[in-house]
């Protein structure tokens, strides 16, 4: 999809706004990982390298697959951003690569979340989509491509707030479930404590005896 030439300056500015908040849903651990990736590391032979040099060594098929997956993710969830990316690829290749990397981080995080906690995945995906809409609206206003619709912006901010509340409620429910599981495990562990200790001790002794030479076992 080709964007009109008059919107190219807006596209560049829009990307700047998008990039600032595209990682809004990432955790503190994700931020630490990013910092680690950007820092220089020492190799076993004492040579110092960096994340940038590592990335440049990635094979073309790997980079193509990462780009393809990132674009499929965006096309499925944010058509406006998908159009912007096509402009960036042609006009701002480096910024395009940066955007693909950021989207890949979000995509991977959501995929991992989907496999272990679908309710949390759904609320986080919705949060990302809402934030992206807010970013686009702000970018258009900054670039004066359109007047800022404060009523529409307020509605999006309200939905984002509700999304954040929902996320915390899901996390709260998860904590309650985990607390119940820990309580049940603790009760089982403390029940017949003396008998459990004897069983564990006996198992350890048998393991040691099994590893002894036959002659020493017979001497016992």
Tell me what the structure shows.
A two-stranded antiparallel sheet has the order 1-2. It has a domain at 5-27 and 57-182. With 220 residues, it is an all-alpha fold. It contains ten helices and two strands; from the N terminus they run H-H-E-E-H-H-H-H-H-H-H-H. The longest helix is centred in the last third of the chain and has 41 residues, at 150-190. Helix 6 (93-116) runs antiparallel to helix 7 (118-142). Helices cover 80% and strands 2% of the residues.
Brief account:
The chain is an all-alpha fold. It has a domain at 5-27 and 57-182.
Q: Helix amount, in percent?
A: over 70%
Mean pLDDT: 77
Give the strand order of the largest sheet, numbering strands 1, 2, ... along the chain. Answer: 1-2
Give the radius of gyration: 27 Å
Q: Uncertain regions: pLDDT < 50 for 5+ in a row? A: 1-10, 20-33, 38-44, 48-57
Reading the helices and strands in chain order gives HHEEHHHHHHHH
Q: Beta fraction of the residues? A: under 5%
User: What count of helical segments does DSSP give?
Assistant: 10
Could you tell me the number of beta strands? 2
Name the overall outline: elongated
- N-to-C span: 82 Å
């Amino acid at each position: 999809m080709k964007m009109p030439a008059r919107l190219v300056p807006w596209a560049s500015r829009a990307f700047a706004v998008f990039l600032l908040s595209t990682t809004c849903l990432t955790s503190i651990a994700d931020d630490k990982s990013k910092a680690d990736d950007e820092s220089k590391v020492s190799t076993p032979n004492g040579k110092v390298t960096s994340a940038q040099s590592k990335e440049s060594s990635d094979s073309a098929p790997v980079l193509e697959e990462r780009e393809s997956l990132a674009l499929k993710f965006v096309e499925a969830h944010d058509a406006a951003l998908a159009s912007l990316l096509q402009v960036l690829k042609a006009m701002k290749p480096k910024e395009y690569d940066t955007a693909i990397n950021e989207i890949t981080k979000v995509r991977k995080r959501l995929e991992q979340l989907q496999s272990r906690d679908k309710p949390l995945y759904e609320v986080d995906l919705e949060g990302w989509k809402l934030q992206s809409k807010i970013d686009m609206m702000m970018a258009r206003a900054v670039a004066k491509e359109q007047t800022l619709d404060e009523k529409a912006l307020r509605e999006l901010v309200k939905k984002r707030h509700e999304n954040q509340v929902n996320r915390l409620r899901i996390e709260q429910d998860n904590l309650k479930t985990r607390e119940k599981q820990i309580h049940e495990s603790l009760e089982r562990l403390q029940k017949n404590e003396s008998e459990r200790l004897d069983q564990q001790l006996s198992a350890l002794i048998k393991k040691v005896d099994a590893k002894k030479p036959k002659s020493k076992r017979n001497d016992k």
